[in-house]
Amino acid sequence: MEHKPFLVEGMHCASCAKNIENFSRALPGVTSAAVNFATQKGAVSFDENITGIEIIAKGITDALGYKITPMAERDPEEESRAYQKEIRQQRNYTIFSWLLAIPIMLGTFREYWIISSFSPAFLANSYVIWLLTTPLMLGPGRQFFIGAYRGLKHGFTDMNLLIATGTGAAYLLGVVNTLFPNIGFGGKEVAFFETAALLTAFLVLGRYLEILTRGKASEAIKKLMGLKVKTARVMRRGSEQEISIEEINVGDLVVVKPGEKFPVDGVIRKGYTAVDESMITGESLPVEKKQNDAVIGATINITGLIWFEATKIGKDTMLAQIIQFIEDAQLAKPKIQKLADKVSGNFILVIHILALLVFLFWFFVGYSAFFTPGAKFLLSSIALSAVPGSVFAVLLSITVLIISCPCAVGLATPSAIAAGTAKGAQYGILIRGGDALERASKVDTVVLDKTGTLTKGKPALTNILNVGSLDADQILQIAASAEKGSEHPLGAAMVKAALKKSLVLDPISHLQAIPGHGIEAVLDRGKKIYLGNRQLMNAQKIILSASVEKKMQKLEGEGKTAMILAVNGTVEGLIAVADTLKENSLTAVLALQKMGFKLLMLTGDNQRTAQAIAGQIGIQNVLAEVLPANKALEIKKLQQQGSVVAMVGDGINDAPALTQADVGIAIGSGSDIAKEAGQIILVKEDLRDIINALDLSKKTMRKIRENLFWAFIYNALGVPLAAGVLFPWFKFLVSPELAALFMAFSSVSVTLNTLLLRRYKFRYL
Amino acid sequence: MKKNSRNLVISLATAVLFSFLFIFVANNKQGVATFDISLGTAWVFLLSLIVALSLAQRN
């Protein structure tokens, strides 16, 4: 099964996205399809033995007329140029429309107020207005007719058809009234050209604003793409060569000077530096890097000259994976979207039925029952008393068509998801789309894995207790000398601590590991060392005093692993090693508790160690000695009790539990984002990002709800107003022009509301 | 294309039917002028054609 993303050109409404999805799903071999109207991107999953992305793309283009470019073939610069071209075109259309619409208004409204004092008389001539309206319809207005025609030709209906019906009808009424003023449609007094002209001008303005704001939705990805480096200096045949980034191979030695970006992911082979990783991880402070440390492509080498070995290139780099992750995320729809999809999918049908009913009501009943000569449209020059009932009913029907375009409904969810996921990505919080956002916003229980999540996962030296004649440094020096060659994590912790204290380690002449007990070693100075647990000491008949035993028990009670050091048969000291808490674990746990989440720690470790760690950070509920395979079962039990569970753990080792949880949060993923099981991936090893991620999810979902509420309320209020529900009492109506203005601003207001998410500040940075 | 053509024919037939129905009802209503019926018929034809096309497209 293949999954391929693609770019779409030519979408103008949510129903376009729906049409492409429906069409793609019906193609042979295609199992799923998703299209995001806000980001103008889509993706299909298909059986590669039956079809291919090129066949699907061609199918969509041939059948529906949208231009489909598979993502693999896209050129970001070309994409940006195409977007800029679209903005320029709509801006020019808008300027052109208003240059014509203003004199049309001046001519039509000449009778009103002070307009006659500066509006020349010839502008009021209906032939002049016709002359001015025609280029507006044929120029900027043409796109709606072409879109509607293309849709009908390919057997589908979209928003263009609504607009084309409305503006076309107004224009034709104008032509008929101008050429045949006595036919009975109101004559030259009510030419309707200004209705057609203003409708088009407002709709073009709306489209321009929509494109401008829609572009902001995919800005984050464009920014990430802009981080890519174009060239790199690589050591080839003993000399430095500048080559394009595509020519770098895995294993190449790449040279990066201070101030330059690392072109791809790799491991430092020579040099020492500080690296600005903020663009990928959101970490604001530079990170120190030395030999054998990993570097991420697109991060900035600040201080030192570095030689590093390329380990990941092209689509395997972390940057490429993040971009891919976000693009996929923006296509994953939350359940709440289904309602909006249903509305968008049916709106052409429903609105035309509604428009038909409104027409029939006003034609047969309403006009004769409620019309009075004083009736008027808001902000319109049309003298309603001059038009017959049929024209009146058609005008109301047109207004319903125009006002009810649910562009805002179509934009509400995808634009918020795009903004939310992009905001997270900026700070190293990758959220796998709308579904993950929706579930994360409902979480009430957070289950934290212990090792590697709450703790560093690597034992560190915590205590040195002298019980004989040696001081603490001497104890550490001897123990570290004995453990120097050991690969055991406990030994490594001691050696690390000794080196940190700049202690000089003695050479050893004999070393023997005693599995499960400790080690036996002879230092060059002739000292015979035993370092290990009680069993080792018992086996060697080394007696532990009551006070040593008491100290051992105290250390073990704190969840630490205590080792005894005996030199030449005498106990000299105790060394304790423990997995220590990560820097921000305590802050994160306290904040999560304060926010009202039920916390639970899950670990495979023994009860005592687990309780010790839990005690340090104040977690009451501990599930210890849980085998990795059973972690998922424990999560399931919680879910059966009605909890909505977020599991925080290692993305690869805890994969089953992360998958079982309602939201899996993988922390400190390194560079293998693609392999992660979590719905939320925290790039940084900072537990406080759990709070940031859950909070961002809540805020994004709130934004989606707000958007949907405003979009629906707009239609719920606008449609009855346009249908003339208030007319029998208040004698005024919404004119088609005003309907166009409302429609344009409804989608803009939804997008602007979404853009406020960009101003959202994370609690912890 | 075959499906599209079939949809178009069915939709046109439906729109024509609705238009005739409109004319019939309008003609039987007192005080409705001919031009009102002409305009109304055109509008009913257009809207019912689009409704029929949308319905056909869904099947």
From TrEMBL, chain A:
Keywords: ATP-binding, Cell membrane, Membrane, Metal-binding, Nucleotide-binding, Translocase, Transmembrane, Transmembrane helix. It holds the Pfam family HMA. GO terms for biological process: copper ion homeostasis. Gene3D superfamilies: 3.30.70.100, Calcium-transporting ATPase, cytoplasmic domain N (3.40.1110.10), Calcium-transporting ATPase, cytoplasmic transduction domain A (2.70.150.10), HAD superfamily/HAD-like (3.40.50.1000). Belongs to the cation transport ATPase (P-type) (TC 3.A.3) family. Type IB subfamily. It comes from Candidatus Amesbacteria bacterium GW2011_GWC2_45_19. InterPro entries: ATPase_P-typ_cyto_dom_N, ATPase_P-typ_P_site, ATPase_P-typ_TM_dom_sf, ATPase_P-typ_transduc_dom_A_sf, ATPase_P-type_domA, HAD-like_sf, HAD_sf, HMA_dom. The chain crosses the membrane at residues 95-115, 127-149, 161-184, 190-209, 343-365, 377-403, 708-732, 738-757. It is found in: Cell membrane. Its main location: membrane. It is a multi-pass membrane protein. NCBIfam families: ATPase-IB_hvy, ATPase_P-type. This is Copper-exporting P-type ATPase A. GO terms for cellular component: plasma membrane. PROSITE patterns: ATPASE_E1_E2 (PS00154), HMA_2 (PS50846). Residues 2-68 form the HMA domain. GO terms for molecular function: ATP binding; ATP hydrolysis activity; copper ion binding; P-type divalent copper transporter activity.
UniProtKB/TrEMBL annotation, chain B:
The chain crosses the membrane at residues 7-25, 37-56. Keywords: Membrane, Transmembrane, Transmembrane helix. It comes from the Bacteria. This is Uncharacterized protein. It comes from Candidatus Amesbacteria bacterium GW2011_GWC2_45_19.
